[in-house]
Amino acid sequence: MSTITKAACIGGGVIGAGWVARLVLNGIDVCIYDPDPEADRKVGEVLKGARRAYRKMLPDGLPKEGKITYAKTIADAVAGAQFIQESVPERLDLKHRVLAEIDTHAPPAAIIGSSTSGIKPTDMQPAMKKHPGRLVVGHPFNPVYLLPLVEIVGGEQTSAEAVEKARTLYASIGMKPVVIRKEIEAFVGDRLLEAMWREALWLIKDGICTVEELDDIMRYGFGLRWAQMGMFQIYRVAGGEAGMRHFMAQFGPCLSWPWTKLMDVPEFNDELVDLIATQSDEQSDRWSIRELEKIRDDNLVAIMEALGRQNKGKGWGAGELHNAYTKQLAKLAKPAKASVAAEKAKAEKPKKKKG
Amino acid sequence: MSTITKAACIGGGVIGAGWVARLVLNGIDVCIYDPDPEADRKVGEVLKGARRAYRKMLPDGLPKEGKITYAKTIADAVAGAQFIQESVPERLDLKHRVLAEIDTHAPPAAIIGSSTSGIKPTDMQPAMKKHPGRLVVGHPFNPVYLLPLVEIVGGEQTSAEAVEKARTLYASIGMKPVVIRKEIEAFVGDRLLEAMWREALWLIKDGICTVEELDDIMRYGFGLRWAQMGMFQIYRVAGGEAGMRHFMAQFGPCLSWPWTKLMDVPEFNDELVDLIATQSDEQSDRWSIRELEKIRDDNLVAIMEALGRQNKGKGWGAGELHNAYTKQLAKLAKPAKASVAAEKAKAEKPKKKKG
């Protein structure tokens, strides 16, 4: 069960709207601030997709949704919120302005999470004059309403209590919080993604493969492994009975072979953008983005369910968490249903007497 | 249906044995050469695991297995083979010796695939004095009997015909061949893996996270995405209706941010090996390697089946291929069963007459 009943989301883009969806589908009221006049429509579309995915997870019905309201100012949005998630664009000056505002007007006990993919909380805290200790990075992965991972990162001024509160809070809405031990730019997830992304750009730029071929290499190969075990556990198994030391001894030397171009950075110019965008169209423009979103979400639910059936039904990895989460949501849905039924019964009773 | 009936596997380690398993489970006879006196036992263990996984895929029964024989020399192993897969350790001098031997004794029409993870075929071909044109790299991913991906790479002397034959051959045993357009060291898959691996080593070395935390970040996060769509398609969706150009414009600049340590290489020393091996033990030593292998294989089958049920049962990505592969194997299993039944009926007929 969620540890909160009222949250605020500052920023309603793809990530912000994903948070809104996860929160309201857990029965939490959310007040949104986003200056975009189209915010309402955009959030509505993400929420539609999220509802669709949750219906697949919970065929017997969803919990009563939290209420969504829109505020005209950040001050109004955060008033009375127990938790505020900031998801504005990745510009430090903007983060500063927004966090200063949030800090001034939020209840002192409220936890503030930032969705930043890479800015260190220590660099954001100077803007918070009142209670910087309650700021954590809570870095989610798209789609936020389905992918369980959230990286929690504290800054120099963050209190241990705030990290613990954030961990409990994110876990209470079905997520897998991983607390990062030392603060660095881009944390862990995006450091790994960035390494991969750069190498991928080289491979496309040099004409070694197309974006579709590269994607196929991922999804017919190591992607299937990483949905269930990470890199280290998978390599441990590959090392065989001799284990991790053997694996390291065998593959360690590759580190000094010319197996990567990552010693420098590909120039990010129009030519590269054109090449990738054109190849991406060839790969995917037979589907609209909305269709691809549905496909992605259906696949995610199916993969997590499949992992949930493993280990004699106890589940493995994200599947074990998925089982616990859907169970929790089903429980949350039931009392609502039961009370509706009870009310109906009450309403019908006099009629029966009459009949 | 497989395009061949008789293959040779040179090298019976984890990868070589994985090839043996995939081949014999497709009904293909395999002759193995491996100087390791324990090769028989080791191959047997991999085969046991593979059979177990295929039984999950094919509850109604497996095709009749190909016959396994062991040869005392490479010459004996390749005699009469239509296809030879080389999976010896990654040392160029060894590859040269082995490929020279294979080339001398294999039937001229036989295709030769090398399992190398990174050596360019052009660098291996000089050892082949007779028919270097039929050498391709056929780089698989562990476990070979389950993961569909195989990267096909031709060298300067490789004929277009050999590449096409190899593509058809690998596809005929349920694999997803991706032909790499230009020959580079480590091809595509291992370039990406190496980029990720280096960054991961930095993160562990610097104490940002443990191997278990890093693995969790993968399997509760982007690993779930990459089992179904690759990096480019996933980012296209994340870019929203504005598409890939928008995504590139938004995230391109990160390339010059300090989001990665990959500008140099972590020193590969005993300290790093110890750190990683110790953390890996903490993460995984509650399971034996054999247990982890079973868990991994069960999960892989479950994920591919889950993807196979998508798209109104047509399947998505590896799931679509999985549907076709299991169908093909089931068909291969049936005639065997049917003929057994027919033989039984024949054998029983006279008895009936007597009775």
Automatic annotation (TrEMBL), chains A, B:
<dbReference type="GO" id="GO:0005737">
    <property type="term" value="C:cytoplasm"/>
</dbReference>
<comment type="similarity">
    <text>Belongs to the 3-hydroxyacyl-CoA dehydrogenase family. L-carnitine dehydrogenase subfamily.</text>
</comment>
<feature type="binding site">
    <location>
        <begin position="11"/>
        <end position="16"/>
    </location>
    <ligand>
        <name>NAD(+)</name>
    </ligand>
</feature>
<dbReference type="GO" id="GO:0070403">
    <property type="term" value="F:NAD+ binding"/>
</dbReference>
<keyword id="KW-0520">NAD</keyword>
<dbReference type="InterPro" id="IPR026578">
    <property type="entry name" value="L-carnitine_dehydrogenase"/>
</dbReference>
<dbReference type="Pfam" id="PF00725">
    <property type="entry name" value="3HCDH"/>
</dbReference>
<dbReference type="GO" id="GO:0006631">
    <property type="term" value="P:fatty acid metabolic process"/>
</dbReference>
<comment type="function">
    <text>Catalyzes the NAD(+)-dependent oxidation of L-carnitine to 3-dehydrocarnitine.</text>
</comment>
<feature type="site" description="Important for catalytic activity">
    <location>
        <position position="139"/>
    </location>
</feature>
<dbReference type="InterPro" id="IPR013328">
    <property type="entry name" value="6PGD_dom2"/>
</dbReference>
<dbReference type="InterPro" id="IPR006176">
    <property type="entry name" value="3-OHacyl-CoA_DH_NAD-bd"/>
</dbReference>
<dbReference type="Pfam" id="PF02737">
    <property type="entry name" value="3HCDH_N"/>
</dbReference>
<comment type="pathway">
    <text>Amine and polyamine metabolism; carnitine metabolism.</text>
</comment>
<feature type="domain" description="3-hydroxyacyl-CoA dehydrogenase NAD binding">
    <location>
        <begin position="6"/>
        <end position="183"/>
    </location>
</feature>
<keyword id="KW-0560">Oxidoreductase</keyword>
<dbReference type="InterPro" id="IPR036291">
    <property type="entry name" value="NAD(P)-bd_dom_sf"/>
</dbReference>
<dbReference type="GO" id="GO:0009437">
    <property type="term" value="P:carnitine metabolic process"/>
</dbReference>
<protein>
    <recommendedName>
        <fullName>L-carnitine dehydrogenase</fullName>
        <ecNumber>1.1.1.108</ecNumber>
    </recommendedName>
</protein>
<dbReference type="InterPro" id="IPR008927">
    <property type="entry name" value="6-PGluconate_DH-like_C_sf"/>
</dbReference>
<dbReference type="GO" id="GO:0047728">
    <property type="term" value="F:carnitine 3-dehydrogenase activity"/>
</dbReference>
<keyword id="KW-0963">Cytoplasm</keyword>
<dbReference type="InterPro" id="IPR006108">
    <property type="entry name" value="3HC_DH_C"/>
</dbReference>
<feature type="domain" description="3-hydroxyacyl-CoA dehydrogenase C-terminal">
    <location>
        <begin position="187"/>
        <end position="252"/>
    </location>
</feature>
<comment type="subunit">
    <text>Homodimer.</text>
</comment>
